[in-house]
Design goal:
The protein is α/β, with parallel strands linked by helices and about 350 residues long. The chain has 10 helices and 13 strands.
């Protein structure tokens, strides 16, 4: 299992595989592209077909070797239950979740210091990170351009998460960042925030293509187009991801609460357990805002994410009900046809 050890294989992972009765070799998905995945197994890298399984980068899987000598593609027989899942509402607008990475231990939210701070977006990313169960770390990239208000602004919207100022070109902050990450680490953030540059700097070589942001609007160029895993050594693996434009909530109630601990704590003292912190009497959250003890913008952001999360959940439930109704109608027609044709 030497080749798998570089990709996070541990005795605990081995125990999870030992409990399976499906024949095949253990492996980990390191890249997914164009309907095929790339897995690392004890025998080395292997291209695999999902074979009806939805796989994503970071998945631990059971794979079957190619059936014939001329075939170079294996098959995924099973996907182990995921932990540390980074997921969002599908960017297409369908009532479905999109898994960005699986079995993650640390989430590095990258924020560029040379762009205007969007606190709401940072809070969204942190909500996804907290919801996964992984440990969030905020990397303030391009630190040579950072100002004290930017750093303080990031710290104010990231309670409970470490904030590290880094500058990849000169190596500033890299050792501190490495000290704060462990296990499988995924980098998330907007295009142009410096995710791939950080991955290259931590790995000590150019393994990911990078490009400067567009001059006319300061936006990234989406140089990274796939989620890919790289071994760093000492049990660390890094997952680089494409820039995220949409960061929709998906069953992220626990993550939202963790991203706004001060709001969640005060909400325990509201008169009503389902208080929306708007016009209800006895609202402890609104009282704290009026007293100047709580940032009104944070409360509005918290409220917005909760509403969005509830709306997505309602749409998802409606879609499932529609699918079940349709399946029941199909079955009913089949039964009627059976008895009619007897």
């Amino acid at each position: 299992m030497e080749s798998l050890a570089a990709y996070g294989w541990t005795p605990q992972i081995a125990e999870r595989f030992a409990g399976s009765d499906i024949h095949g070799s253990p492996g980990r998905i390191v890249r997914v592209a164009r309907g095929c995945g790339e897995a690392v197994t004890s025998a080395g890298p292997l291209r695999v077909r999902p074979s009806g399984h939805h796989v994503c980068t970071g998945d631990w899987v059971i794979v079957r070797e190619p059936a014939t000598e001329g075939d170079t593609i294996g098959a995924v027989c099973a996907v182990l239950p995921r932990v540390g899942v980074i997921r969002r509402a599908d960017a297409s607008g369908r009532s479905e979740e999109q898994v960005l990475a699986a079995n993650v231990d640390t989430v590095v939210v990258t924020v560029a210091a040379d762009t205007a701070l969007d606190p709401g977006r940072v809070e969204r990313l942190l909500a996804l990170a907290w919801d996964s169960g992984a440990q969030p770390v905020v990397a303030l990239t391009k630190a040579d351009l950072a100002t004290e208000p930017v750093f303080n602004g990031i710290s104010a919207v990231a309670p409970g998460a470490s904030v590290v100022e880094v500058c990849a070109p000169n190596g500033s902050g890299l050792s501190e960042l490495r000290d704060r990450i462990h296990g499988t680490v995924v980098f998330v953030g907007a295009s142009g925030a410096g995710k791939s540059t950080l991955v290259n700097a931590l790995c000590g070589r150019e393994i990911q293509a990078t490009a400067p942001v567009r001059q006319r609007d300061g936006k990234g160029r989406h140089t990274t187009t796939e989620r890919e895993m790289f071994p760093l050594g000492d049990g660390l693996t890094l997952i680089d991801t494409p820039g995220l434009r949409g960061v929709g909530m998906w069953e992220a109630g626990a993550g939202i609460a963790a991203a706004f601990p001060e709001v969640d704590e005060l909400a325990q003292h509201c008169r009503f357990t389902d208080c929306a912190h708007e016009s209800e009497p006895g609202c402890a959250v609104r009282a704290a805002v009026e007293d100047g003890d709580l940032d009104a913008r944070r409360v509005e952001s918290h409220r917005k994410l909760r509403r969005e999360n509830a709306w997505v959940a309602a749409r998802s439930d409606a879609r499932l009900r529609h699918e079940r109704t349709r399946e029941a109608k199909v079955m009913s027609r089949a039964i009627r046809a059976y008895y009619r044709d007897r």
